Amino acid sequence: MSDLGAQDFDYCIIGAGVSGLSLAMQMMDSALSDRAIVLIDGADDDDALRTLSFWSAKPTALDALVRHRWRTLELHGSDGPKTIELRSEQYQTLFFADLQRECKRRLLESRRHLVIEGRARSVEERDDHVLVTVGDRTLRAKWAFDSRFKRGELGVDTARWHALEQRFRGWVLRTPHDHFDPDRATLMDFRAELPAGTAFFYVLPFSKREALVELVTLIPAEPEPLFEKYLASVLGLREYEIVAQEAGVSPMTEQPFEPRSSARVRAIGIPAGRLKASTGYALTRILDDNAAIVRSLSVLGHPFERSADSSFYRALDAVMLELWEREPERVPGIFAAMFGRSPDRVLRFLDERTTLLEVLQLIAPLPPTPFIRAIGRWIARRLDGVSPSSPG
Ligand SMILES: Cc1cc2nc3c(=O)[nH]c(=O)nc-3n(C[C@H](O)[C@H](O)[C@H](O)COP(=O)(O)OP(=O)(O)OC[C@H]3O[C@@H](n4cnc5c(N)ncnc54)[C@H](O)[C@@H]3O)c2cc1C
């Protein structure tokens, strides 16, 4: 590929999904605000991510875009409903379309930046820059940030690691009458008509008449009938209009991702291992990783400095995946028991922000037998997976 006629930028961001858009926003809000960014938006029209939820006790880079926040959460597990009052954390949701609109508005405001619609066809590294082609355009950048990801690339070694899938299907509903309590969100409601622990709903009301109802399943299932049944028999809702839908599948594996980074290309988002294996949440991990990129570029002049992921939490993820896979009927009770004590601590734990002592405090009241069995099976699986006689 020739450099001739290439347009010059400091940073080329490949993919205008969650990590690409938020990285551009975080760069524009930082000491790097005078750098030139090109964002390559290769999203298909049917890319169907609509809402992004997360929790946090402190401000985040996307606070201005948050549509709704909740401190009162409900769980509905095997032993009935449980109401949780958060003290420091807040559960929050923003709309992907708002992130997209705001990021592009800001990029297009400055002549320094460029947004290109199209798929990156090739990415080639030179000594001190990267060349990226989109259609017949060639872009030259000092650094590229790559969020392209195909699930097939993951290549999970299933002899050693879990390879579950979290299937999402969400509906944003509008009702003709007041129906929802916008101060109260349902975080996990396991009353889906599938084997216990293999599916749950969450309900995030944005107003008295509008809510996201999302079904998450760990086994293949036809979502519509489950959704209609849930609306009628659990929410008592018959009159509604569907105003938006979202769907997708997230891989759940503790296998470490090999970030596809190289000398001048830094992986971001899912390819950088930002999806939390046991929960399927990624947003705050993406924002933290982006912040590390911005810091590293500002201080060191390259984007690669970041703290390593914790192998302790990865082991805990693996145990949780073992339970989801082999004893899912235990999972609702485990979440109910953990949230019953200190909900803020559970959310910090799921975000890997707890100390060892806090982890022990969380685990102590749980029934030990399923965990001991899960740990035993996980160790056996790892040993089998690495033994010379085992295939692969
Ligand atoms: C339905 C669903 C709901 C989710 N909800 C939440 C949630 O509420 N909270 C949370 O924390 N996490 C959530 N996640 C998990 C995670 O945050 C998302 O998957 C998120 O989109 C990951 O961000 P990303 O940038 O890695 O990938 P993406 O957002 O998928 O971005 C990658 C982008 O790259 C583009 N692309 C691919 N190839 C090319 C190419 N050659 N050239 C240019 N562009 C290209 C794609 O079209 C895409 O737009 C959800 C996941 C799914 C599937």
What order do the helices and strands come in, and which of them pair?
Blueprint lengths: L6 E8 L3 H11 L8 E5 L9 E6 L9 E5 L1 E6 L2 E6 L4 E6 H14 L4 E4 L2 E6 L4 E5 L2 E10 L17 E11 L9 E6 L9 E7 L4 E8 L5 H12 L6 E12 L12 E3 L15 H18 L10 H16 L4 H11 L1 H8 L5 H8 L4 H19 L6
Parallel strand pairs: 1-2, 1-11, 2-8, 5-13, 11-17
Antiparallel strand pairs: 3-7, 4-7, 5-6, 9-10, 10-11, 12-15, 12-16, 13-14, 14-15
Helix pairs in contact: 1-2, 1-4, 5-9, 6-7
The site of flavin-adenine dinucleotide has 33 residues, from helix 1, strand 3 and strand 16.
Notes on the structure:
The protein is of the alpha/beta class. The relative contact order is 0.15. Among the domains are: 7-65 and 95-154 and 256-300, FAD/NAD(P)-binding domain; 311-386, no CATH class. The strands form three sheets. Strands 1, 2, 8, 9, 10, 11 and 17 form a seven-stranded mixed sheet that branches. The chain has a seven-stranded mixed sheet with strand order 6-5-13-14-15-12-16, with helices on both faces. The chain is globular and about 65 Å long. α1 (18-28) packs across α4. It has helices at 18-28, 96-109, 223-234, 283-300, 311-326, 331-341, 343-350, 356-363, 368-386; strands at 7-14, 37-41, 51-56, 66-70, 72-77, 80-85, 90-95, 114-117, 120-125, 130-134, 137-146, 164-174, 184-189, 199-205, 210-217, 241-252, 265-267. It binds flavin-adenine dinucleotide. Flavin-adenine dinucleotide binds at residues 14-20, 40, 42-44, 47, 49, 51-54, 119-120, 147-148, 168, 246-248, 250, 269-270, 275, 280-283.
